[in-house]
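User: tokens in, sequence out, please.
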């Protein structure tokens, strides 16, 4: 077939340009592809559903699909949580720290902040969505996942009592050494810890 790709193991043919576009987006998102992604690159949702029926894609959550050929790895659930919450959503607080292996953070739920309410009720991973505006300067990408910056996440985790202060202090040192904090941010965080204004852990 002209300009098409045969997907071995699934016994179906997908137009080469379409499959290539889907694959390239998913490769940047830990193997995940959404209907929103499809709209951006001109792939209709009906076509994605057909690919699920053929076994070419996996349905991961409503409007979110997995590309079996792309290994998601450790960061996939974090990316999935953000995608499920919708455009403009980012990881926050201890979820950011857990993604990056800081402060021994191991949250029971992945915390996400979204600019608008999330109306669906079927999260694909244990997660909690908080509705709030986020300053663009406080948003970045870690491991291909939209996140609040580490300095902001550390302060949040401390002030909300989500991570022990001693672990926050250790994480500040690691983050500073790895160049993940802005100038003066480590000093400000350590001063905040010294002042003891953090809420009680747990």
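Assistant: Sequence out:
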């Amino acid at each position: 077939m002209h300009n098409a790709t045969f997907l071995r193991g699934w016994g179906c043919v997908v137009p080469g340009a379409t499959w290539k576009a889907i694959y390239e987006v998913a490769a940047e998102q830990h193997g995940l592809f959404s209907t929103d992604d499809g709209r951006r690159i001109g792939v209709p949702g009906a076509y994605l559903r057909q690919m699920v029926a053929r076994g070419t894609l996996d349905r991961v959550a409503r409007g979110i699909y997995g590309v079996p050929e792309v290994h998601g790895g450790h960061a996939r659930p974090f990316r999935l949580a953000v995608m499920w919450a919708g455009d403009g959503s980012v990881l926050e607080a201890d979820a950011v720290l857990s993604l990056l292996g800081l402060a021994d953070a191991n949250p029971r739920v992945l915390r996400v902040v979204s600019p608008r309410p999330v109306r669906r009720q079927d999260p694909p991973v244990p997660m909690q969505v908080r509705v709030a505006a986020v300053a663009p300067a406080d948003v970045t990408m870690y491991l291909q996942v939209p996140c609040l910056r580490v300095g902001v996440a550390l302060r949040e985790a401390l002030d909300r009592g989500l991570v022990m202060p001693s672990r926050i202090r250790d994480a500040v040192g690691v983050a500073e050494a790895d160049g993940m904090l802005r100038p003066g941010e480590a000093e400000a965080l350590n001063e905040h810890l010294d002042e003891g204004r953090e809420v009680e852990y747990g």
